[in-house]
């Protein structure tokens, strides 16, 4: 039984809990795959969407034909009164519009909870979080157990 605590709620699932960008098996039951980063903050000045981390924040998951819930939580700061924009890709296809799935103005360090619900076909899928800034520099904290960066994919059946 896999477990994941989100927003103070304990979610239990019949599938495997994977970390470090690992994948999960397809088939029966709900699946949860997650990556938790506690070292190595991220920075971008890109005004176009880019992967937050091409190596460590990627989840490969084989699903049934179902819905998936993508979640990114952490802390962000953006300089110069600019915005940080977040999106997710599924098999290389961005899910949001020009501003992504959520835009955040973070004059100070702000906690973020970015969520997206998408329908996927049966098969193997690659999930990645992306971000950009509208100007200045964006800093996404993943510096300790107190300020972890969490990326999770939950298959809902």
What does this entry look like structurally?
By secondary structure, this protein is an all-beta fold. The protein has one domain (2-156): Jelly Rolls (Sandwich), CATH 2.60.120.40. The protein is built from no helices and 16 strands. The protein has strands spanning 2-6, 9-13, 17-18, 23-24, 31-37, 42-44, 50-51, 59-63, 66-78, 83-90, 93-94, 102-105, 110-120, 123-133, 138-141, 149-156. The strands form 3 sheets. Strands 3, 5, 6, 9, 13, 15 and 16 form a 7-stranded mixed beta sheet that branches. Strands 4, 7, 8, 10, 11, 12 and 14 form a 7-stranded mixed beta sheet that branches. A two-stranded antiparallel sheet has the order 1-2. A hairpin with a 2-residue loop joins strand 1 (2-6) and strand 2 (9-13). The chain is globular. It starts with a strand and ends with a strand.
Offer a concise description of the structure:
With 157 residues, the protein is mostly beta strands. The chain is 0% helix and 59% strand. The chain is globular, with a radius of gyration of 15 Å.
């Amino acid at each position: 039984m896999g477990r994941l605590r989100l927003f103070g709620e304990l979610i239990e699932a019949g599938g495997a809990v994977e970390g470090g960008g690992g994948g999960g098996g397809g088939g029966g039951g709900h699946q949860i795959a997650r990556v938790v980063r506690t070292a190595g903050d991220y920075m971008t000045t890109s005004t176009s969407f880019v992967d937050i981390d091409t190596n460590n924040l990627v989840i490969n998951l084989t699903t049934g034909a179902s819905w998936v819930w993508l979640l990114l939580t952490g802390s962000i700061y953006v300089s110069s009164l600019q915005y940080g924009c977040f999106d997710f890709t599924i098999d290389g296809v961005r899910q949001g519009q020009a501003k992504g799935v959520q835009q955040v103005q973070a004059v100070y360090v702000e906690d973020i909870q970015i969520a997206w619900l998408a329908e996927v076909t049966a098969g193997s899928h690659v999930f990645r979080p992306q971000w950009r800034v509208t100007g200045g520099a964006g800093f996404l904290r993943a510096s300790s157990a107190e300020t972890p960066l969490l990326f999770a994919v939950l298959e809902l059946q």
